Amino acid sequence: MLKHFARSSLPHLTTAARRQSKRQLKHFQQTLKTPLIQRITVPASGVGQKYMWQQVASYSTDTETTNEPTDQEIITGKEEVHEFKTETKRLLNIVANSLYSEKEIFVRELISNAADALEKLRHTQSMENLDTDKPLEIRISLDQDKRQFVIQDYGIGMTLDELNENLGTIARSGSKSFLEKLEKDGGSRENIIGQFGVGFYSTFMVGDRIKVYTRSAKPGSKGYCWTTDGQGSYTVAEADNVSVGTKIVIELREDCKSYASQLEIDSIIKKYSNFVGFPIYLNGTEVNTVEPLWTKSKSEVTEEQHKNFYRFIANAWDDPQYTMHFKTDAPLSIASVLYIPERHMEMLGERQEPGVSLYSRKVLIQPKSKGLLPDYLRFIKGVVDSEDIPLNVSRELLQDNILSKLRMVMTSRVLKWLDGEAKKDPKKYNEFFMDFGQFIKEGACTDAMNKRDIAKLLRFESSTTNAGDMTSLEEYNNRKLDKQESIYYLLTPKRKYAEESPYTEMFKKKGVELLYLYDTVDEFVVNHLSEFQGIKLVAADSPEAASDPLLQQDRSSSSDDGFLSENDAKDLAKWMEITLGPDSVKKVDVSRRLDKFPAIVLEHESPAMRKMMQMMQGSAKMDEVPPSPARLEINPDHAVMRGLYQIRQSNPELAKMVAEQVYDNALCAAGVLDDPRSMISRLNSLLEISVNKSIEQEKKVASA
User: Fold this and answer.
1) What is the DSSP annotation of 315-358?
2) In the predicted model, is pLDDT for residue 462 greater than 90?
3) For 591, which DSSP code?
4) What global pTM score does this model have?
């Protein structure tokens, strides 16, 4: 009797009302269990009777405990047997055995179908005066002893014609010719994309026998029972006590009995259908309690709600440092909520999986989707929901053109979002870049389409910032000198090395800003970018920088004050080129941009590439690859070079040692000398000569 009251309940109540009714029901049930003689002692006045029936009326609204799917339906009509068509049998076999990669998908499919039925009813009710006196909800009950899975919705339901059309004949879209083509192409399941909407038939993956009770929401409709074992035929019969909507009873196979476990189904619902727009009850308990924040407007969601949702969707305990709530209708219908965590796991050596899941109409399509955002944005967590996604039968394979368009839109939007956050709070963004910069740099190297937007997100230290402070390429570009035509950078392990490098000498003197790039990957980043907003990125140790008139200084062409003349300097350069040999140097030139250093090398191998080659040699046991010859620039005004010019004739042996040492010093300053230990013997010899000469001079002074 109580169940009868409940089944004619009012529309879905609030949680507080359900709990209140539940407590009242429990009290009334205890009253009914009280011996009759005790109940007679209660005054049977009109007021008492009125109170009693008010209590009974309130129980009828309890959808929490009494609206569970039951077996009260009764078949009253004659069962009519229908044969599946041949092509339908073949398609059923494909669906049951090969279409879906995971059997658990059947739960998602049935919930999605139920939600669609409820949405159709709600839409119909908005157009017509149609009242079913049923809550818009989905109920699932499980029975492990019977190996039974039951799902019921109070949606639009089906008439007899709709029942036969939707369940009895799934091949109405030209499936016979399609199946022939499918078999001809080798039976690949990918070829079924977009051909049918047969999510219901995923039940055949797990069930031996499927029973469907349904009654249309149209006034005066009868109830029916549709039954099949999927072996070639199905039966349809009239039935009584069938609620408006659809109830599906699955008798699970022995190897699928885990799907009668509440724990198992609860986890599947939370994985795929947690954000379906209708309440889902599992054995009387509502399971989809987390709100889909992306469906709300940005102003409706609080920071605390975002924190809780982020922790749920990312399975995390920290708080998001950045939040993007984004909606658009063009070029695709997209609703999304994205988060950037406070930290990432790759700093511990563990590569992260993508963190953004793809939904369609609040139903999970791809968890941690690899195609939704480029790999370098894998640190982002959140949800992207698009109603424009055309799904195939299994909802597991998307049409590439739609997914690529969605990826293009979302990638562009994320990069603009990060740029906006960087401009809004530069200090906070710089802290973010210190931890997550490796991902941005990875994108600069791999995403040619978006490299201009990615370049805006890069941050580096520079000669004009304090240690630890960073600047952007855009800020550098705005500060550069009037006659400066390039953005200059220097690859260096540490700031101290850069500030003491011979390559930065003239930059300091001329007031030209220089970016300091500390990471090995930075070289690949600038090489891939090559320019920023039309301004070339140029290395400070490149020939292009050496020839920049802005970085030159005027020198006297006379030999006053002991300086070499231009001709003498060229003679010295020629002598060094011959002495060092073609295996070491390509060419020796006279430099006019050095001041306190005797020489530098240009056109040398990249230090990063050199290290990679050494690693390959070590792992593959390759023969050692000798360094490529470099171009040497000498400073003829330096004391060492002037002295070398003098002794090259009088003491050629010592001059050769000095020339070799100058070259190795230049290689060392460039970071491309493989093993500095190779010059220790020569250094010791030069020290010995220097000490002996000093002793001789002291003796001469003493004897004088």
Assistant:
1) T-SS--SEEEEEEE-SSS-EEEEEEE-S--GGGGT-PPPPEEEE
2) yes
3) -
4) 0.72
